[in-house]
Design the sequence.
C-alpha cells in the first residue's frame, strides 16, 4: 500500500467532501430508506448542495426503486460511468447502483466475495460523480465482503469517512447493530450517531400508537455505548408507499428521457417533504450536519484541510 | 470494462471457488486456468491441468454426515428483516412438537446470527467431542448450531470475507454431530452470495429437499425475493413455496386491519402466481411475534389461538404436504 495516497479511488473521490456510510448489521431495518431520505434531505439542506448516493448492496439493490429510477441504464463516458440523476437536469442528486446494470430486474446477482470486491472498487473509482458535498453509501446487512472492501478501498480518504447506524427497537436487531458498531470501531470509522427506525406505528383508523417492533431500544443502546442518538422514526405508511413507488413501472418512458433524468422522480422530493416523517428526519439531518461541522473525526483523525 | 454482463461465457456460479480471483471463470469451465483472470492465481496450474474439476475434499464427509438426515430445507428470502429466522424457529418448534420427530436448525447467517436469541439459548456454547461438535439442544429433539454460540461476546462482529464463511459452513455440515434427523432446517442470511452458494454446493450430492422463501408485501422486498427465486432456479433448488410475512396489522385498540407494508404490486400472492410457485400463506404482523423472538419463547406455544399462529400452522402443514410428509 505504498501508493495509498494516489489510488484511482483516491483520485476519484478527491472531489467529494464528506462520505457517509449507512449501515446496520441487520437486514430490513430501513438502511436504504434512511439512505434515500438522507440523500434527499441533504440535497434540500442548501440550494447548491450536490449529493451522491452509492448503493453497494450488490445482491439486493433497493435504491433505484426508492428513487423511482428502476430500469434506467447507466451510460459510459470517456471519464467513467455517468451516474443516474434523480433530479434530471438539475443534476444535484446522483445515484449509482448495481440495479442499473442488470438486464432484467429480477436477475439474481450470484457473486462470491472477489467479484463483489471488484464491483465496489469500480463503483468507487469509475463513477463520474463530479464535485459532491456528500456521498451517501448504502450498505447490505452484515459485516462482510462489501464492508471490508469499502473500508479497504477508501483507506486514502479515511479522514472524510463517517457512519450512521440504523436499527429497529427490538433486541434481535440491536444485537446486530452492536456488531455493526464493533465493526466501525475496529476500522476506526467515526459514528455520527444512531437512528431508531420503525419505532411505533400509528393506526390510520384510531390514531393509537402500537409499538410493532417494541420501542426505545435504540436510544438505550446509544446511551450505553456513548453514541449520539439522532432520533427515532415511526413506521410511516405514506413514506413506505412513496418509496415503494408503485407507478414507477414505465421503463419505456423513463428510457426516453434525456441524460438519464426523470421528471417524475424530481417530484419525489416534493412528495417526500409532505410525508409525516420528513420534518422528523430534518431534525436528524440537522444533527448530522452539526456533527459533521464540529468534526466527528476529532477522536481519530488529524484535521483534513480542504 | 463493465464486469457485469460477462464477456466470457457465463460461468457456473457454483464452480467458482471461494478464494478465486476476480472474474474467475470457475473451476468447471473450459477456460479454467486459461482465462485472463487466472494469471497470477495460486491455483492456476491446478485448474489448467484439469485436476480441479474434481470435487471439494469436504464433500464426501458432508455426504456421510448428511446421510442420516432425511429432509433438508432452506429458508431463504433475498431481503433482510422479513422474518427468516423467526419463521425458521417456528418451523423448528412446530416439527419438534412431535416427540418422535428429530429436528435440527442450522444458522448460516454468520455476520448476524439471530437464531440463538430467538430460541432462547443465546448464552449457550458448543462442545466438541470425539464424534464432532454437539449442537445446542433447545429440547430433546431440537438441536441448533450457530456461529452465535462460538463468540466470546454477543457484541463481537464477525468480519469475514467469503472463504472463511465457506470454511465454517463446511464445518457445520461435516463436523456437527447431528445424529439421526428427520428435518434439518437451514436459516440463511439475506442475499444471494457466498453463504448461499456454499450451502448449495456442499449439499448438492446429499440433496436439498426444497426452499421456503419468505417475503414481506411491499415491492422493495418482492424485488429481492424475485432475485432469490431466480437464484433457486439457476442452482436447481425446488421452491416449496412463498410465505408473506408482516401482512397486515390489526390495531389492538380498534381491531381494524391496516397495511403497514402496502402490497403496491399485489404482494406475495401475485408474485407466487407470476413466478408459478405455491403461495403458502400470509402471516399478519403481530407485535407479540417480535417480542416472543426477543425473549426466546415459542410464539406458537404462547399464543396458540392468535391469527398469526393459525396462519403459521396452516403454512407448516402445507410445507409438509409439499414434502410428502403429511
Sequence:
Amino acid at each position: 500500500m505504498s501508493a495509498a495516497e494516489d489510488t484511482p479511488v483516491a483520485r476519484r473521490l478527491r472531489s467529494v467532501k464528506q462520505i457517509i456510510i449507512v449501515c446496520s448489521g441487520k437486514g430490513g431495518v430501513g438502511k436504504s430508506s434512511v439512505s434515500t431520505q438522507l440523500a434527499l434531505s441533504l440535497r434540500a439542506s442548501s440550494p447548491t448542495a450536490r449529493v451522491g448516493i452509492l448503493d453497494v448492496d450488490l445482491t439486493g439493490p433497493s435504491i433505484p426503486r426508492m428513487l423511482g429510477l428502476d430500469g434506467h441504464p447507466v451510460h459510459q463516458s470517456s471519464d467513467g460511468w455517468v451516474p443516474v440523476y434523480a433530479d434530471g437536469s438539475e443534476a444535484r442528486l446522483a445515484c449509482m447502483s448495481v440495479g442499473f446494470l442488470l438486464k432484467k430486474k429480477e436477475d439474481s446477482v450470484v457473486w462470491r466475495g472477489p467479484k463483489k470486491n471488484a464491483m465496489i472498487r469500480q463503483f468507487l473509482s469509475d463513477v463520474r460523480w463530479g464535485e459532491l458535498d456528500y456521498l451517501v453509501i448504502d450498505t447490505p446487512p452484515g459485516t462482510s465482503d462489501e464492508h471490508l472492501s469499502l473500508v479497504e478501498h477508501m483507506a486514502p480518504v479515511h479522514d472524510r469517512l463517517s457512519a450512521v447506524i440504523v436499527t429497529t427497537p427490538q433486541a434481535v436487531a440491536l444485537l446486530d447493530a452492536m456488531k455493526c458498531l464493533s465493526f466501525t470501531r475496529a476500522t476506526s470509522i467515526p459514528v455520527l450517531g444512531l437512528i431508531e427506525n420503525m419505532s411505533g406505528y400509528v393506526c390510520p383508523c384510531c390514531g393509537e400508537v402500537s409499538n410493532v417492533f417494541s420501542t426505545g431500544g435504540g436510544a438505550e443502546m446509544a446511551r450505553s455505548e456513548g453514541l449520539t442518538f439522532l432520533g427515532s422514526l415511526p413506521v410511516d405508511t405514506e413514506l413506505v408507499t412513496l418509496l415503494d413507488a408503485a407507478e414507477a413501472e414505465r421503463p419505456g418512458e423513463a428510457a426516453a428521457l434525456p441524460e438519464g433524468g426523470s421528471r417524475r422522480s424530481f417530484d419525489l422530493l416534493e412528495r417526500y417533504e409532505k410525508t409525516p416523517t420528513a420534518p422528523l428526519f430534518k431534525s436528524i439531518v440537522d444533527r448530522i450536519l452539526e456533527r459533521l461541522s464540529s468534526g466527528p473525526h476529532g477522536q481519530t483523525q488529524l484535521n483534513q484541510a480542504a | 470494462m463493465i464486469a457485469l454482463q460477462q464477456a466470457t461465457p457465463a460461468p457456473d456460479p457454483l464452480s467458482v471457488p471461494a478464494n478465486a480471483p476476480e472474474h474467475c471463470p470457475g473451476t468447471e469451465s473450459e477456460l479454467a486456468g486459461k482465462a485472463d483472470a487466472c494469471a497470477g492465481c495460486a491455483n492456476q496450474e491446478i485448474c489448467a491441468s484439469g485436476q480441479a474439476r474434481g470435487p471439494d475434499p469436504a464433500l464426501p464427509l458432508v455426504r456421510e454426515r448428511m446421510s442420516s438426515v432425511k429432509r433438508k430445507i432452506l429458508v431463504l428470502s433475498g431481503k433482510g428483516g422479513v422474518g427468516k429466522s423467526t419463521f425458521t424457529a417456528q418451523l423448528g418448534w412446530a416439527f419438534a412438537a412431535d416427540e418422535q420427530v428429530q429436528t435440527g436448525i442450522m444458522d448460516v447467517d454468520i455476520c448476524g446470527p439471530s437464531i440463538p436469541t430467538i430460541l432462547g439459548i443465546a448464552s449457550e456454547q458448543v462442545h466438541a467431542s470425539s464424534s464432532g461438535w454437539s449442537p445446542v439442544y433447545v429440547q430433546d429433539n431440537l438441536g441448533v448450531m450457530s456461529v452465535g454460540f462460538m463468540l466470546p461476546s454477543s457484541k463481537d462482529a464477525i468480519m469475514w470475507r467469503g472463504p472463511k464463511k465457506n470454511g465454517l459452513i463446511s464445518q457445520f455440515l461435516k463436523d456437527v454431530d447431528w445424529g439421526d434427523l428427520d428435518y434439518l432446517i437451514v436459516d440463511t442470511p439475506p442475499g444471494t452470495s457466498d453463504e448461499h452458494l456454499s450451502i448449495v454446493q456442499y449439499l448438492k450430492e446429499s440433496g436439498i429437499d426444497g426452499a421456503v422463501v419468505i417475503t414481506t408485501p411491499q415491492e422493495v422486498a418482492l424485488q429481492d425475493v424475485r432475485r432469490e427465486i431466480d437464484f433457486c432456479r439457476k442452482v436447481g433448488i425446488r421452491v416449496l413455496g412463498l410465505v408473506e410475512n408482516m401482512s397486515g396489522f390489526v390495531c389492538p385498540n380498534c381491531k381494524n386491519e391496516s397495511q403497514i407494508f402496502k402490497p403496491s404490486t399485489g404482494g406475495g400472492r401475485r408474485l407466487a402466481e407470476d413466478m408459478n410457485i405455491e403461495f403458502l400463506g400470509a402471516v399478519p404482523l403481530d407485535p407479540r411475534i417480535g417480542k416472543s423472538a426477543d425473549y426466546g419463547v415459542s410464539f406458537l406455544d404462547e399464543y396458540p389461538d392468535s391469527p398469526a399462529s393459525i396462519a403459521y400452522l396452516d403454512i407448516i402443514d402445507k410445507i409438509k404436504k409439499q414434502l410428502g410428509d403429511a
Remarks:
- Confidence is low (pLDDT under 50) at residues 248-262, 298-306 of chain A.
- Chain A touches chain B through 75 residues (CB under 8 Å).
- The longest strand of chain A covers residues 16-23.
- Chain A has one domain: 4-293.
